[in-house]
Write a structure and sequence with these properties.
Distance between the termini: 93 Å
Number of strands: 30
Keywords: Signal
Low-confidence stretches: 1-6, 33-42, 407-416
InterPro entries: Haem_d1_sf, Host-pathogen_enzymatic-act, WD40/YVTN_repeat-like_dom_sf, YNCE-like_beta-prop, YVTN_b-propeller_repeat
Protein name: Beta-propeller fold lactonase family protein
CATH superfamily: YVTN repeat-like/Quinoprotein amine dehydrogenase
Helix content: 10-25%
Structural class: mainly beta
CATH architecture: 7 Propeller
Shape: globular
Oligomer: single chain
Number of helices: 3
Mean pLDDT: 90
Radius of gyration: 25 Å
Strand content: 35-45%
CATH class: Mainly Beta
Length: 418
Protein backbone atom coordinates (compact mmCIF):
# COMPACT_ATOMS: atom_id res chain seq x y z
CA UNK A 1 0.00 0.00 0.00
CA UNK A 2 2.83 2.40 0.89
CA UNK A 3 4.61 1.60 -2.35
CA UNK A 4 1.52 2.47 -4.34
CA UNK A 5 1.20 5.86 -2.57
CA UNK A 6 4.86 6.80 -3.19
CA UNK A 7 4.49 6.03 -6.92
CA UNK A 8 1.30 8.02 -7.23
CA UNK A 9 1.89 10.93 -9.71
CA UNK A 10 0.37 13.52 -7.38
CA UNK A 11 2.59 12.41 -4.53
CA UNK A 12 5.69 12.41 -6.74
CA UNK A 13 4.91 15.94 -7.99
CA UNK A 14 4.49 17.22 -4.44
CA UNK A 15 7.82 15.69 -3.40
CA UNK A 16 9.56 17.42 -6.28
CA UNK A 17 8.01 20.79 -5.39
CA UNK A 18 9.06 20.44 -1.77
CA UNK A 19 12.56 19.48 -2.89
CA UNK A 20 12.84 22.49 -5.18
CA UNK A 21 11.71 24.82 -2.39
CA UNK A 22 14.31 23.33 -0.05
CA UNK A 23 17.04 23.82 -2.64
CA UNK A 24 15.94 27.41 -3.21
CA UNK A 25 16.03 28.16 0.52
CA UNK A 26 19.48 26.61 0.79
CA UNK A 27 20.74 28.71 -2.12
CA UNK A 28 19.41 31.88 -0.50
CA UNK A 29 21.13 31.00 2.77
CA UNK A 30 24.43 30.41 1.00
CA UNK A 31 24.13 33.66 -0.97
CA UNK A 32 23.36 35.55 2.21
CA UNK A 33 26.44 34.08 3.83
CA UNK A 34 28.61 35.09 0.90
CA UNK A 35 27.31 38.64 1.03
CA UNK A 36 27.90 38.77 4.76
CA UNK A 37 31.46 37.66 4.23
CA UNK A 38 31.92 40.28 1.53
CA UNK A 39 30.73 42.95 3.93
CA UNK A 40 33.29 41.77 6.45
CA UNK A 41 36.26 41.53 4.10
CA UNK A 42 35.64 44.28 1.60
CA UNK A 43 32.00 44.65 0.69
CA UNK A 44 31.93 48.08 2.28
CA UNK A 45 34.52 49.28 -0.19
CA UNK A 46 32.54 47.89 -3.11
CA UNK A 47 29.39 49.57 -1.81
CA UNK A 48 31.19 52.89 -1.34
CA UNK A 49 32.54 52.81 -4.87
CA UNK A 50 29.14 51.87 -6.30
CA UNK A 51 27.50 54.72 -4.39
CA UNK A 52 30.06 57.23 -5.65
CA UNK A 53 29.59 56.09 -9.23
CA UNK A 54 25.81 56.25 -8.89
CA UNK A 55 26.04 59.83 -7.56
CA UNK A 56 28.18 60.81 -10.54
CA UNK A 57 25.73 59.23 -12.97
CA UNK A 58 22.87 61.27 -11.51
CA UNK A 59 24.80 64.55 -11.43
CA UNK A 60 24.57 67.53 -13.78
CA UNK A 61 26.37 66.78 -17.06
CA UNK A 62 29.14 69.32 -17.73
CA UNK A 63 30.39 67.72 -20.93
CA UNK A 64 28.19 69.94 -23.08
CA UNK A 65 28.29 73.15 -21.04
CA UNK A 66 30.60 76.14 -20.83
CA UNK A 67 31.81 78.37 -18.02
CA UNK A 68 29.97 81.68 -17.88
CA UNK A 69 31.03 84.42 -15.49
CA UNK A 70 28.44 85.21 -12.85
CA UNK A 71 30.20 87.53 -10.42
CA UNK A 72 33.42 88.59 -8.71
CA UNK A 73 33.40 88.72 -4.92
CA UNK A 74 35.67 91.20 -3.18
CA UNK A 75 35.94 92.65 0.30
CA UNK A 76 38.23 92.16 3.25
CA UNK A 77 39.66 88.90 1.88
CA UNK A 78 42.85 87.27 0.63
CA UNK A 79 41.48 83.80 -0.03
CA UNK A 80 43.99 80.99 -0.08
CA UNK A 81 41.30 78.40 -0.79
CA UNK A 82 37.57 77.85 -1.17
CA UNK A 83 35.53 74.79 -0.15
CA UNK A 84 31.88 74.15 -1.04
CA UNK A 85 29.50 72.09 1.08
CA UNK A 86 26.89 69.72 -0.44
CA UNK A 87 24.20 72.26 0.48
CA UNK A 88 25.91 75.21 -1.20
CA UNK A 89 27.68 76.95 1.69
CA UNK A 90 31.11 78.09 0.48
CA UNK A 91 33.93 79.06 2.83
CA UNK A 92 37.11 80.94 1.95
CA UNK A 93 40.28 80.69 4.05
CA UNK A 94 42.09 84.02 4.35
CA UNK A 95 45.36 83.01 6.04
CA UNK A 96 47.23 85.30 8.44
CA UNK A 97 46.58 88.32 6.23
CA UNK A 98 42.99 88.56 7.48
CA UNK A 99 42.83 85.90 10.23
CA UNK A 100 39.36 84.92 9.03
CA UNK A 101 37.18 82.40 7.27
CA UNK A 102 34.47 84.07 5.18
CA UNK A 103 31.26 82.15 4.48
CA UNK A 104 29.00 82.68 1.45
CA UNK A 105 25.71 81.34 0.21
CA UNK A 106 25.50 79.63 -3.16
CA UNK A 107 24.28 82.99 -4.51
CA UNK A 108 27.61 84.60 -3.58
CA UNK A 109 26.24 86.68 -0.74
CA UNK A 110 28.41 86.99 2.39
CA UNK A 111 26.84 85.17 5.34
CA UNK A 112 29.51 85.60 8.00
CA UNK A 113 33.11 86.49 8.70
CA UNK A 114 34.49 84.00 11.18
CA UNK A 115 37.58 85.08 13.16
CA UNK A 116 40.32 82.52 13.74
CA UNK A 117 40.84 83.68 17.35
CA UNK A 118 40.10 80.97 19.94
CA UNK A 119 40.77 80.27 23.58
CA UNK A 120 42.27 76.80 23.41
CA UNK A 121 41.53 76.22 27.09
CA UNK A 122 37.82 76.26 26.32
CA UNK A 123 38.40 73.23 24.11
CA UNK A 124 40.26 71.28 26.78
CA UNK A 125 43.81 72.08 25.70
CA UNK A 126 46.06 71.78 28.74
CA UNK A 127 48.42 74.62 29.63
CA UNK A 128 46.72 76.99 27.17
CA UNK A 129 47.61 80.57 28.03
CA UNK A 130 44.81 82.64 26.54
CA UNK A 131 43.35 83.65 23.20
CA UNK A 132 45.41 82.77 20.15
CA UNK A 133 44.96 83.20 16.41
CA UNK A 134 45.43 80.77 13.56
CA UNK A 135 45.92 81.29 9.83
CA UNK A 136 43.25 79.38 7.84
CA UNK A 137 44.71 77.58 4.81
CA UNK A 138 42.48 74.83 3.43
CA UNK A 139 39.19 73.17 4.36
CA UNK A 140 37.12 70.04 3.82
CA UNK A 141 33.41 69.43 4.49
CA UNK A 142 31.70 66.46 6.07
CA UNK A 143 29.49 64.50 3.71
CA UNK A 144 26.31 65.95 5.26
CA UNK A 145 27.62 69.50 5.14
CA UNK A 146 27.14 70.00 8.88
CA UNK A 147 30.81 70.59 9.70
CA UNK A 148 33.98 71.77 8.00
CA UNK A 149 37.56 71.11 9.09
CA UNK A 150 39.95 74.02 8.54
CA UNK A 151 43.74 73.82 8.75
CA UNK A 152 45.79 76.67 10.25
CA UNK A 153 49.17 77.44 8.72
CA UNK A 154 50.51 78.60 12.08
CA UNK A 155 49.31 79.70 15.51
CA UNK A 156 49.99 83.16 16.90
CA UNK A 157 49.78 84.37 20.48
CA UNK A 158 50.62 83.18 24.01
CA UNK A 159 52.53 79.90 23.98
CA UNK A 160 53.44 80.07 20.27
CA UNK A 161 56.81 81.62 19.50
CA UNK A 162 58.14 79.46 16.64
CA UNK A 163 55.83 80.37 13.80
CA UNK A 164 55.67 78.51 10.53
CA UNK A 165 57.38 79.56 7.30
CA UNK A 166 57.48 78.08 3.81
CA UNK A 167 61.21 77.44 3.59
CA UNK A 168 61.24 75.21 6.66
CA UNK A 169 62.68 71.70 6.80
CA UNK A 170 61.91 68.76 9.06
CA UNK A 171 64.70 69.97 11.35
CA UNK A 172 63.28 73.48 11.68
CA UNK A 173 62.00 74.47 15.09
CA UNK A 174 58.35 75.22 14.32
CA UNK A 175 55.39 74.99 16.68
CA UNK A 176 52.71 72.39 16.01
CA UNK A 177 49.42 73.86 14.83
CA UNK A 178 45.71 73.06 14.95
CA UNK A 179 42.80 72.10 12.74
CA UNK A 180 39.54 73.85 13.64
CA UNK A 181 36.12 72.30 13.16
CA UNK A 182 33.57 74.85 11.97
CA UNK A 183 29.85 74.31 12.59
CA UNK A 184 27.77 75.16 9.51
CA UNK A 185 24.68 76.19 11.47
CA UNK A 186 26.34 78.60 13.89
CA UNK A 187 29.39 79.42 11.76
CA UNK A 188 31.54 79.15 14.86
CA UNK A 189 34.53 77.00 15.77
CA UNK A 190 33.30 74.12 17.93
CA UNK A 191 36.37 71.86 18.12
CA UNK A 192 40.16 72.02 17.79
CA UNK A 193 42.61 69.20 16.99
CA UNK A 194 46.37 69.45 17.28
CA UNK A 195 48.34 68.18 14.29
CA UNK A 196 51.87 68.86 12.99
CA UNK A 197 53.78 71.96 11.99
CA UNK A 198 52.22 74.06 9.20
CA UNK A 199 49.28 71.81 8.24
CA UNK A 200 48.00 72.50 4.76
CA UNK A 201 45.56 70.16 3.02
CA UNK A 202 42.91 68.38 5.09
CA UNK A 203 40.75 65.52 3.80
CA UNK A 204 38.02 63.29 5.22
CA UNK A 205 37.79 59.62 4.32
CA UNK A 206 34.56 58.70 2.50
CA UNK A 207 33.43 56.67 5.53
CA UNK A 208 33.86 59.87 7.61
CA UNK A 209 35.92 58.10 10.25
CA UNK A 210 39.35 59.53 9.49
CA UNK A 211 40.65 63.04 8.97
CA UNK A 212 44.05 63.51 7.32
CA UNK A 213 46.29 66.58 7.33
CA UNK A 214 49.59 67.13 5.53
CA UNK A 215 52.17 68.89 7.70
CA UNK A 216 54.41 71.03 5.49
CA UNK A 217 57.23 71.61 7.97
CA UNK A 218 57.01 68.27 9.81
CA UNK A 219 57.15 66.31 6.56
CA UNK A 220 54.37 64.06 7.83
CA UNK A 221 50.75 63.06 7.40
CA UNK A 222 48.57 63.34 10.51
CA UNK A 223 45.94 60.63 10.94
CA UNK A 224 43.07 61.84 13.11
CA UNK A 225 40.35 59.65 14.56
CA UNK A 226 37.21 61.73 14.01
CA UNK A 227 35.27 60.13 16.86
CA UNK A 228 38.06 60.91 19.32
CA UNK A 229 38.91 64.26 17.71
CA UNK A 230 42.54 63.30 18.24
CA UNK A 231 45.66 62.68 16.19
CA UNK A 232 46.29 58.96 16.61
CA UNK A 233 49.29 58.53 14.30
CA UNK A 234 51.72 60.30 11.99
CA UNK A 235 53.23 58.88 8.82
CA UNK A 236 56.52 60.14 7.43
CA UNK A 237 56.17 61.43 3.86
CA UNK A 238 59.08 63.64 2.81
CA UNK A 239 59.79 67.22 1.83
CA UNK A 240 56.79 69.54 2.02
CA UNK A 241 53.81 67.17 1.68
CA UNK A 242 50.65 68.84 0.42
CA UNK A 243 47.86 67.28 -1.67
CA UNK A 244 45.73 64.40 -0.39
CA UNK A 245 43.27 62.06 -2.10
CA UNK A 246 41.56 59.07 -0.46
CA UNK A 247 40.30 55.92 -2.19
CA UNK A 248 36.51 55.38 -2.34
CA UNK A 249 36.77 52.45 0.08
CA UNK A 250 38.61 54.61 2.67
CA UNK A 251 41.55 52.21 2.94
CA UNK A 252 44.24 54.10 1.02
CA UNK A 253 45.44 57.67 0.90
CA UNK A 254 47.61 59.30 -1.75
CA UNK A 255 49.87 62.16 -0.68
CA UNK A 256 51.83 64.56 -2.90
CA UNK A 257 55.37 65.48 -1.88
CA UNK A 258 55.42 68.98 -3.35
CA UNK A 259 59.03 69.53 -2.31
CA UNK A 260 60.06 66.53 -4.40
CA UNK A 261 58.76 64.47 -7.29
CA UNK A 262 56.88 61.65 -5.60
CA UNK A 263 53.30 60.74 -4.79
CA UNK A 264 53.08 58.34 -1.87
CA UNK A 265 50.54 55.60 -1.21
CA UNK A 266 49.50 55.31 2.44
CA UNK A 267 47.91 52.21 3.97
CA UNK A 268 45.57 53.80 6.50
CA UNK A 269 45.14 50.62 8.55
CA UNK A 270 48.85 49.79 8.76
CA UNK A 271 49.75 53.51 8.85
CA UNK A 272 52.63 53.06 6.47
CA UNK A 273 53.65 54.89 3.30
CA UNK A 274 55.50 53.83 0.17
CA UNK A 275 56.36 55.64 -3.08
CA UNK A 276 53.70 55.14 -5.73
CA UNK A 277 54.78 57.19 -8.75
CA UNK A 278 56.91 60.14 -9.85
CA UNK A 279 54.38 62.17 -11.86
CA UNK A 280 56.52 65.26 -12.39
CA UNK A 281 58.31 67.99 -10.47
CA UNK A 282 56.43 69.67 -7.67
CA UNK A 283 53.26 67.52 -7.42
CA UNK A 284 50.70 69.60 -5.54
CA UNK A 285 46.99 68.72 -5.85
CA UNK A 286 45.45 65.25 -6.08
CA UNK A 287 41.99 63.99 -7.06
CA UNK A 288 40.96 60.34 -7.28
CA UNK A 289 38.26 59.08 -9.65
CA UNK A 290 35.00 57.74 -8.21
CA UNK A 291 35.83 54.20 -9.34
CA UNK A 292 39.23 54.38 -7.65
CA UNK A 293 41.08 53.52 -10.85
CA UNK A 294 42.76 56.84 -11.64
CA UNK A 295 44.58 59.57 -9.76
CA UNK A 296 44.92 63.08 -11.20
CA UNK A 297 47.96 65.16 -10.22
CA UNK A 298 48.95 68.79 -10.85
CA UNK A 299 52.70 69.37 -11.13
CA UNK A 300 53.41 72.95 -10.10
CA UNK A 301 57.00 73.09 -11.35
CA UNK A 302 56.51 70.97 -14.48
CA UNK A 303 53.39 72.88 -15.62
CA UNK A 304 51.47 69.67 -16.27
CA UNK A 305 48.37 67.79 -15.27
CA UNK A 306 48.74 64.01 -15.38
CA UNK A 307 46.53 60.99 -14.93
CA UNK A 308 47.93 57.97 -13.10
CA UNK A 309 46.61 54.47 -13.68
CA UNK A 310 46.58 53.13 -10.12
CA UNK A 311 46.65 49.46 -11.12
CA UNK A 312 49.99 49.87 -12.90
CA UNK A 313 51.17 52.94 -10.92
CA UNK A 314 52.09 54.66 -14.18
CA UNK A 315 51.20 57.97 -15.80
CA UNK A 316 48.93 57.22 -18.77
CA UNK A 317 47.84 60.76 -19.79
CA UNK A 318 49.59 64.14 -19.66
CA UNK A 319 48.64 67.67 -20.67
CA UNK A 320 50.64 70.89 -20.44
CA UNK A 321 48.94 73.80 -18.69
CA UNK A 322 49.76 77.45 -18.06
CA UNK A 323 52.33 78.48 -15.46
CA UNK A 324 52.16 76.82 -12.04
CA UNK A 325 49.03 74.64 -12.05
CA UNK A 326 48.05 74.33 -8.41
CA UNK A 327 44.67 73.56 -6.87
CA UNK A 328 42.19 71.35 -8.67
CA UNK A 329 38.53 70.35 -8.29
CA UNK A 330 36.40 67.77 -10.06
CA UNK A 331 32.86 68.34 -11.33
CA UNK A 332 30.13 66.40 -9.56
CA UNK A 333 29.65 64.16 -12.60
CA UNK A 334 33.37 63.35 -12.81
CA UNK A 335 33.64 64.53 -16.41
CA UNK A 336 35.78 67.62 -15.84
CA UNK A 337 38.63 68.95 -13.75
CA UNK A 338 39.10 72.63 -12.97
CA UNK A 339 42.74 73.62 -12.52
CA UNK A 340 44.05 77.05 -11.52
CA UNK A 341 47.37 78.28 -12.94
CA UNK A 342 48.83 80.59 -10.32
CA UNK A 343 51.48 82.19 -12.52
CA UNK A 344 49.22 82.80 -15.51
CA UNK A 345 46.04 84.25 -13.93
CA UNK A 346 44.03 81.48 -15.57
CA UNK A 347 41.81 78.50 -14.84
CA UNK A 348 41.43 75.54 -17.19
CA UNK A 349 38.52 73.14 -17.62
CA UNK A 350 39.96 69.76 -18.58
CA UNK A 351 38.06 66.66 -19.72
CA UNK A 352 38.92 63.74 -17.44
CA UNK A 353 38.61 61.00 -20.06
CA UNK A 354 41.56 62.18 -22.16
CA UNK A 355 42.83 65.41 -20.50
CA UNK A 356 41.65 67.60 -23.37
CA UNK A 357 41.53 71.27 -22.37
CA UNK A 358 37.97 72.40 -23.09
CA UNK A 359 38.08 76.00 -21.90
CA UNK A 360 40.56 78.46 -20.36
CA UNK A 361 39.21 81.35 -18.32
CA UNK A 362 41.01 84.54 -17.30
CA UNK A 363 41.07 85.25 -13.56
CA UNK A 364 42.36 87.98 -11.31
CA UNK A 365 46.08 87.70 -10.39
CA UNK A 366 47.27 84.70 -8.37
CA UNK A 367 44.42 82.17 -8.62
CA UNK A 368 45.22 79.68 -5.86
CA UNK A 369 42.07 77.75 -4.87
CA UNK A 370 39.09 76.23 -6.67
CA UNK A 371 35.89 74.43 -5.70
CA UNK A 372 32.87 72.96 -7.47
CA UNK A 373 29.61 74.13 -5.88
CA UNK A 374 26.99 71.44 -6.61
CA UNK A 375 23.68 73.17 -5.93
CA UNK A 376 24.16 75.68 -8.77
CA UNK A 377 26.81 73.73 -10.71
CA UNK A 378 29.25 76.58 -10.30
CA UNK A 379 33.02 76.84 -10.10
CA UNK A 380 34.51 79.15 -7.48
CA UNK A 381 38.08 80.38 -7.96
CA UNK A 382 39.87 82.11 -5.08
CA UNK A 383 42.55 84.62 -6.04
CA UNK A 384 45.20 85.43 -3.48
CA UNK A 385 45.22 89.01 -4.75
CA UNK A 386 41.88 89.58 -3.00
CA UNK A 387 38.86 88.22 -4.88
CA UNK A 388 36.72 85.19 -5.69
CA UNK A 389 35.53 84.52 -9.23
CA UNK A 390 32.21 82.64 -9.56
CA UNK A 391 31.53 80.82 -12.84
CA UNK A 392 28.41 78.90 -13.83
CA UNK A 393 28.45 75.75 -15.95
CA UNK A 394 25.78 76.76 -18.48
CA UNK A 395 24.34 75.52 -21.76
CA UNK A 396 24.00 79.05 -23.07
CA UNK A 397 25.26 82.55 -22.46
CA UNK A 398 28.56 84.23 -23.23
CA UNK A 399 31.64 82.17 -22.35
CA UNK A 400 33.83 83.66 -19.64
CA UNK A 401 36.76 85.68 -21.10
CA UNK A 402 39.97 83.86 -21.95
CA UNK A 403 43.41 85.19 -20.94
CA UNK A 404 44.85 87.80 -23.30
CA UNK A 405 48.36 87.42 -24.64
CA UNK A 406 49.12 84.29 -22.64
CA UNK A 407 50.60 84.05 -19.16
CA UNK A 408 54.11 84.59 -17.85
CA UNK A 409 56.76 81.95 -18.31
CA UNK A 410 56.98 79.18 -15.75
CA UNK A 411 58.90 79.67 -12.55
CA UNK A 412 60.67 76.69 -10.96
CA UNK A 413 59.63 77.80 -7.50
CA UNK A 414 56.37 79.45 -6.58
CA UNK A 415 55.85 82.45 -4.31
CA UNK A 416 55.47 82.18 -0.56
CA UNK A 417 52.77 80.02 0.97
CA UNK A 418 52.49 77.29 -1.64
Amino acid sequence: MKLVVRRDPVYVRRRRIVGLIALLLLALLVLGGVRACQALVGGRGDDATAAALQAQKAAYDVSGTQLVKRQTITGNINPKSVAASPSGLVIAQNMMYRHTVTAYGADGQLKATVPDAVDLAQFGVKDAKGTVKGAPVEATWTRDGAKAYVSNYSMYGPGFVKNGFDDCTVTSAVDRSYVYRLDAASLKVDQVIQVGAVPKVVALSPDQRTLLATNWCSGTLSIVDVAQAKEVATVKIGTHPRGIAISPDSTTAYVAEMGGETVYQVDLAARTAKPLVKPGKGPRALVVSADGKHLYVTNNDANTLVRVDLASAKVDQTVSLASQPRSMAMSRDGRALYVVSYGAAAMSKVRTSDLTVQQVVATEPSPIGVAYEPTRNAVWVSCYSGSILVLDEAKGGTPAPSPKGGGPSASPSGPAHD
